[in-house]
Known about the structure:
alpha/beta; Rossmann fold
Amino acid sequence: MHSQQQAVSAHYAVGDLAERVLAALKAAGKDVEHLTHADLAPLDAFHIRGRDATRELAALAHLDASHAVLDVGCAIGGSARYLAAQHGCRVTGIDLSAEFCEVAALLSARCGLAGQTTFRAASALELPFPAASFDVAWTEHVQMNIADKARFYGEIGRVLRPGGRLLFHDVFLGPAGEPHYPVPWARDAAISHLQPAGAVAPILAALGFRQRHWEDVSARSLDWYRARVQKLDARGPAPVGIHLLMGADAGQKFRNVTRNLEEARIVVVQAVFEK
Ligand SMILES: C[S@@+](CC[C@H](N)C(=O)[O-])C[C@H]1O[C@@H](n2cnc3c(N)ncnc32)[C@H](O)[C@@H]1O
C-alpha cells in the first residue's frame, strides 16, 4: 500500500472494533443479534450532521430497487445500510480499512441487510470494478484524505455508467485558511488534503460531469456541531456514538470541527453531478 494510504489507514485504525461496538450496543439495551439501521445511526454515520445529512443527500438521489450504488469510503457502512433499507437499492461499499469493512459486513448481517449490501477493502484511487458498473456513486467525507483529486473523481467517473450520478457531502477548505487540528479525518496536516470547494467543479467538468445540485450546508453543520458539543459538555460521551471510531481525542476533534466552522476554516457542501 502507498505510504499516504498507510498513514490514512493508521489514522482510522481502532482495534477490536467489532467487540467494542457490540458491547456498546448491548450496554445501550439493544438486541445485538437483531439490529436496525436506526439503532446504529448514532454510531455509523461518520460525517458532519450524521444521519440527517445522509437523509438529505438521499432525498436528492431518487433511488429505487433498480439502482446499483457505490459508496466510496464507506467506513462501517452506515450510509450503505440506510440507502438499502430506505430505498431498496443494492449498495457496494469500499474502504481502505479492512477492519471497517469487516464491521460493516457484520452490522449489515445483524440488520438483515447482507443481501443488499457488500463491503470490500480497496482504495478509492484503484476501484476494483469494471467501467460503467454503477448507476450512482456516493461519497461523504473521504476526499479530504486524498491529495490526487483528479484521480479520485476520475475513478468514480470510470465506474459510473453514462447518465449515472455522483452525490457527495464533503468538507472543503474555507476562506480563513488551514484548520485547527486534530479533526476527525486527521491529527495534523500530513494526511489532510483540503482544497477550496471551487476547485472541485472544474475537475468534474473536465471529466465530463454536469452539475445538477450544489448547496453550501456549513451553517446547518455548525448548528448541529454546537448542539453536539453542548451535549458532550453536559452529559459526557453517549454510550453509542461515532466517538467509538475516533480514539481518545474524539472530544478535541469535535470541538475543533465546531471552531473550524465558526472561523470559516472549513465549509461543507452537498452536491449532485451527472456523468
Ligand atoms: C470520515 S470517514 C467517512 C466514512 C463514511 N463515508 C461516512 O460518512 O460514514 C472517512 C473514510 O474514508 C476512508 N478513506 C480515506 N481514504 C481512502 C482511500 N484512498 N480509499 C478508500 N477509502 C478511504 C477512511 O478509511 C474512512 O473510513
